[in-house]
């Protein structure tokens, strides 16, 4: 019998690669920047798009699982951690670097 946690970890890697494709694609276009809690707390349409994309794919595969997403919480959703399997999602780790295209790791290939 397959280990369900390993299966989730493997799926997380698949999702990260798909998210990377979206992020790399966004770097070729103009980046739309908004602020959250302060002028230096940035969020982009790509953060939101990637988070929604990841959550939708996880919901298809694991409909009973829960989510805490950085951008959803910033938009007012609760961040309640329970005993239910929960995915913690940070769609772009380093939005400021993404906005300024500082981090060359965004350009890594699969
Ligand atoms: Mg982030």
Automatic annotation (TrEMBL):
PROSITE patterns given in the database record: IMP_1 (PS00629)
Binding site residues for Mg(2+) 1: 70, 92
Signal sequence extent: none
Annotated residues for binding of Mg(2+) 2: 90, 93
Entry keyword set: Magnesium, Metal-binding
Gene Ontology molecular function terms on file: inositol monophosphate 1-phosphatase activity; metal ion binding
GO biological process: inositol metabolic process; signal transduction
InterPro entries named among the record's database cross-references: Inositol_monoP_metal-BS, Inositol_monophosphatase-like
Cofactor(s) listed: Mg(2+)
Family affiliation: Belongs to the inositol monophosphatase superfamily.
Record's protein name: Inositol monophosphatase
Organism whose genome encodes this protein: Nothoprocta perdicaria (Chilean tinamou)
Lineage: Eukaryota, Metazoa, Chordata, Craniata, Vertebrata
